[in-house]
Amino acid sequence: MKISLYSIIVAFISLSMFQCENPTEKQEERYTYKTHSPDGIGKFYMGREISRVMGYQGIQWLERPEREKEENTSQLIKNMKISPEDTIADIGAGSGYHVFKTAPLASKGLVYAVDIQDEMLNVIEQQKEKTGINNIEIVKGSEKEVNLPEKSVDKILMVDVYHEFSYPVEMLQSMRKALREDGKIYLVEYRGEDESIPIKKLHKMTEEQAVKEFNANGFKLKENFLILPWQHCMVFQKK
């Protein structure tokens, strides 16, 4: 009888250890690694290779005069239906191109400008001082965290940046925590379905791929505004 009890205890401990190790193994398996393409990092999520990050050296491209014509930013902002009390987070804010367009509309609210590059954040800080807009809060993010308070954000905007996240699962989980229950994510990406759009392949996404990744991380597609010249504007909410 003692031998049987001992065997049961050993079996239980072994099973517990296996169950504890399993989540770690799954976390490691969510990404795969292969030889990288010229514009990628060799890391794949759900069949999509993650692209290289555009460095701060690309600020001039972000602020190019023809951007409004190419992307119809005014229409994008209009579709966000920003109210004065909104709290908005621009994830991967870059030079703050969209930050300084949304902040005046959220006049009684707050806009978080989140980026991982100090050079980008410094540019936003300088522009903030120049314009005198005081409802902008600059946040240094990381590869895995947006570093925002839990359930603090009404709207999250990501423009041509999600495809560069080295850890998309962790970033989506972090954004999900920061988003209020009825909050929305506005995912803007160049349309991967259209080969005529003059953007490198890894810097585009199809609706199908985006939905697959967001569904796997607790989001559902509410609508896709097909009104921008080259980009999807997909609106996601928590499931």
From TrEMBL:
Record-linked InterPro entries: Methyltranfer_dom, SAM-dependent_MTases_sf
Protein EC: 2.1.-.-
Gene3D superfamilies: Vaccinia Virus protein VP39
Record-annotated Methyltransferase domain positions: 84-210
Any GO BP annotation: methylation
Presence of the UniProt keyword Repeat in the record: no
SUPFAM superfamilies listed in its UniProt record: S-adenosyl-L-methionine-dependent methyltransferases
GO MF, one example: methyltransferase activity
Enzyme class: transferase
Pfam families hit by this protein: Methyltransf_31
Keywords: Methyltransferase, Transferase
Source organism superkingdom: Bacteria
Transmembrane segments: none
This protein's name: Class I SAM-dependent methyltransferase
